[in-house]
């Protein structure tokens, strides 16, 4: 069996694997796609100490760093089931069963998309999901924020301080964000709010986003708005479908509940990164959490009676 088995090969999983391997213990990583969300990212300007890099380059760096240690990497494998016990069992969808004294869950999350024409085509060419990451790229430009929940309204307030103008689109007839946020949003001079709007298409010139098409759900009329950026804020979905039904406790939103050491509700099972309840989903944060969960797992191992 493994001493530490990491499920997930994004920034959190890579950090966890390196910290475990450096303890000289038997370490494995199972990943559906080594690199994770970073592979889908173009410019990265907030990975501290690296002024500017690109997703695929950072992903290659993660892999190279992990491979410089004695880590058993099982790429292109999906975990399908976890069973608690003295030895924790992770069953892959291929049918293989892996056993480990400690497991670190780092399966990440994915942004819910609008599912409209043009969205995929213009992703990273104007369609963005992370205001902390891409906000500064739209300095002085016009952007839309899709979604009037807390994340959408927070994004709109954040972006209003950077860009020329923000238009926030909400599907329903009410903003679901906290009242203080809505009050703050409404006080900003360069923000317009469009209610009961259904976005229907992302418009572009072949190179980049030029506008957004939407339908007024009340009148049924179609409209177009010229702009340079669209931030989609309609939810971040944790990759925990495979964990539903236990034994690891999840929040109603599906995030894995962890304590300050990354420990989950199951002894020997730790979690890190975007898949957990830890707020603010970012690369540096995921790496730090991965390192922390790995040290938590090591702490668990040296105290455990399983030989
Ligand atoms: P992920 O990166 O999501 O990795 C999860 C890993 O688990 C992957 O290897 C995946 O294949 C694997 N996995 C999932 N399910 C299973 C399963 N059942 N079995 C086995 N493996 C599984 N952050 C920044 O800090 N700066 C940025 O500029 C930035 N830009 C971004 C741009 C885009 C377009 C996106 C989508 C995200 C961006 N982020 C950025 C966020 C950042 O990418 C994430 O916070 C970070 O990747 C989270 O790391 P993670 O390891 O927790 O999860």
From TrEMBL:
Identify the GO cellular component terms for this protein. cytosol; protein-containing complex
Cofactor(s) recorded in Swiss-Prot or TrEMBL? FAD
Q: Which cysteines does the record link by disulfide bonds? A: 130-133
Domain FAD/NAD(P)-binding: residue ranges? 2-290
Keyword annotations: Disulfide bond, FAD, Flavoprotein, NAD, NADP, Oxidoreductase, Redox-active center
Gene Ontology terms: biological process: response to reactive oxygen species
The molecular function terms in GO held by this entry are: flavin adenine dinucleotide binding; NAD binding; NADH-dependent peroxiredoxin activity; oxidoreductase activity, acting on a sulfur group of donors, NAD(P) as acceptor
Residues bound to NAD(+): 142-156
Q: How is the cofactor bound?
A: Binds 1 FAD per subunit.
Where FAD binds, per the record, is at 3-18, 264-274
Q: Give the quaternary structure.
A: Homodimer.
- Describe the family membership recorded for this protein in Swiss-Prot or TrEMBL: Belongs to the class-II pyridine nucleotide-disulfide oxidoreductase family.
Give the protein name, as stated in the record. Thioredoxin reductase
The beginning of the lineage is: Bacteria, Pseudomonadati, Pseudomonadota, Alphaproteobacteria, Rhodospirillales
